Each structure stands twice: as structure tokens, then as C-alpha cells.
Amino acid sequence: MTPLSLNLKVLLLNVENLFLLSDQQFTPEHLKLDEIQWQKLSTSIYNNKPLQKAKALANVIFETKPDLILLCEVGGLESLRNFNQLFLNDQYSAALVEGNSDRNIDVGFLIRKDLGVYFDITTNKNRSINYLYPHERDSLDAGMTTIGGKPIQSHKFSRDAAELHLFMRDRNQPFLIVILTHLKSRLDPQFKDPGGFERRQAECTALLEIYQELETKFHRKVPIAIAGDMNGLALKASPETEFLQIYQKTELEDVCEVAGLPVDQRATYYQVGRSHRPPDGRQIDYCFLSPLLQRHLKKDSVHVYRYKDHLGLPMDPPTTLDAKMLLPSDHYPLVFELTGIPIF
Fold it and tell me: Is this model's pTM higher than 0.90 or not?
């Protein structure tokens, strides 16, 4: 008897501050408001995602029709549910656990309701990443155990490394696990860790430890993906230092690498200045597949989606900050398909 299998279309995207909050119940009528009225719906300290940008994000999803959506920078479960119900016709189930972000931006999942599978979400937000900033290490070396009255102890993920377990009958026997993260950014306003390098490296190490623990727990029989905004260059050919360990310690491969997608077609983020210089495109959003999952990647499906103009034509990368700010997000979606995943 041939085992049942599942095809999954996946979309990964940093949605850039997706706050969708209201002091009243959202209704379809709210989609007709102008931007000033739209922002007045909420008294939250966080501005709502501009209405036209939220609509544009929804259009991307309607066009690409993903079964599983992996999102970074979501303003909590309420925002994710509101996005699904108001903009996506409630076609998905929302899964999100509030993480550690000091900006209240979380990682979250949308799972198509008619997929016919069950899911669990597990957080690793309380997991130690075994990291102290240099000034904290110096304080310990000097015999101090507290700074500002707080004990000196290891930090945790900047956001989370949330696990989505898909299963059919037994939640203890998933047929697919996706670990979604958003690693430490390069921002360092207090000059504690230039470029966020050490913290990001420690988070990447902890991320791989979670992956290896899951591989051991399920005897390397469950396909696993690690996805998210890595906030750095993790290309196999020339990874930044913090990501070398991915290739030194594991057999994980990014979908773009497995598919052989040309490097100049992989950019998910464009760094632009105030001049009209050519934009600096780079891939900082990745989905790494375990060896078991790599065989299920439909290689010709892998692409970075390009936002469309009012005529439905792909827009060129932004060359100015003003042009970039008009986009639905400052990141571009990574889209791919997994086929024939055995389900049990």
C-alpha cells in the first residue's frame, strides 16, 4: 500500500512591523477607510501596518496561494489573526507564541485550513543561548554577579526559534517540523556588540542545537526545515562568519542552493541610500532543509517573488529610500514547493 503524501507550497517573508490592532471589532467596512481613519482604529503605541501595504501583502498571498506561510515581524497573535480574517478571508489557522522581542515583533505561522493536517507550536524563547556581552563577561571576571541590580546570566533568543510540528494522528509523531526564527539584527545602539555579531552567532549556535536535538529525538526520520530572517549572509559559497557552523556542523542546505538558483536571483533584501546608486541586493532570508527534506524540494518552484506595480508587472528593485518605503515590506518573499512528503 502506497503511503499517503502531501504537497506543500511555502512562503517565507519578513512582513515588516505587521501590527493590525483595533479598539473595536474589525469588519470588511474598515477596508474602505482612508489611511488617517485606519490608523485611528487603534490607540496602541504601535502604528498599524498601512492599509494599502496590508492589502498588497494579501494580494501576494492570493497570487502565490501558499499552504504554509512563515512570517517574521508580526505584532502578536491578535495582529496575525486579524490579518487572516480581514485580509485573507479566514483561509488559514494562525499559530504564534509571543517571543522576547523588545519591539513586540514575533515569528508566526499561517496554515491553510483545508490542508487536512493538525499542528502544534512550541517555543524556545526561554532557552539559554549561552551568551554574555563583553561588558558582562568583564564584570564576571572582576567578581561581580550583578549589573544594575540584575543578575548576570546568559541571554536568550532575540525573538524566538518557534517550532511548528505538523502531524496527522499522533502529535508525538510529526511528519514535518519547521523551526522559524529571526536572528539578532545588526543594530547596536549601546555599542555592546558591533553589528550584533556575537549575539547573532550565539543564536545561530543555539538554533543548530535545537535542530540536532530534534534529529536525535526522531531518529533522523522526520524532515526538518529551519527558516527565517537570518539578518546576515548565509550563502554556502561565502557565508559570514557566524553562519559557517551551519555547513561545518550539519548537512542543512538552503532551498536556493538545492535548486541551483543563480545568486543574483536570490536577493530578499535591498540596501539603499539616499542617492540613486544601484541597490545592494542580498539574501538574508533562508529556508534550510534537512537531507531528508531536500529530496522533496521541487527545484523549479524556488523563487524570490517580486512585488508588482499597478499594471501587475514586476517592479525593479528600489534605488532610493522613498521607493523602498512604498513597498509592502522591506523584504521580498521566498517561495518554494515541497512535494510527496510522507504523512503518517
Answer: yes
